[in-house]
């Protein structure tokens, strides 16, 4: 092919990766500028002569019917990925405001704020977040969790408006393992309230919260501990110590 190259039939790729791009197409036996084979596929880096692709100079040229389609597909994928990334960033940045939640650190998709929380000294990190976002803020771990780190807010939500905040969140792990939230720590319906009422009533009947019973239990526990201290840290059999009068009296108080 001689004369000037008709640029409307070719797509050129400038840059430092020309050689790597050329090798990639050569290994895959991509058609040349004549549409026949790869032997005539050349890159003019030095002379810049008008010898078929001389006007490309330091460019790697491919036939337009091949490269144009591939570039459109490539650019389409890049644009779609870029659009999704920008959309996710905007969504994550404004997610708390959109859901009406207190402010908090921007969560990452899927993992939330889990990667932003340390495994140790978590309390120090919570105090730092309190200084930055206030006494009430939101953490995604990965579900949205409202953290109350202020005494007045805690008193208002737990004591004054306790009934409004008495529910429990739906935990996916509990749904997966047990088919729902059950027990005093996870249930959120009337069954949970009846269980909680029964438990508190039974504990009060056993003397929980009464000063006299509390003092007696503390005294008997201290006497049992004193007996154990006389062993000087030796490995012992606990069964004899579980039959002493102090322990028996302690068990009778809680029976």
TrEMBL record:
One of its GO terms (biological process) is organic acid metabolic process. Pfam families: p450. SUPFAM superfamilies: Cytochrome P450. The chain crosses the membrane at residues 72-93. GO terms for cellular component: cytoplasm. InterPro entries: Cyt_P450 (IPR001128), Cyt_P450_E_grp-I (IPR002401), Cyt_P450_sf (IPR036396), Cytochrome_P450_fam2 (IPR050182). Belongs to the cytochrome P450 family. This is Unspecific monooxygenase. The gene is Acey_s0002.g687.
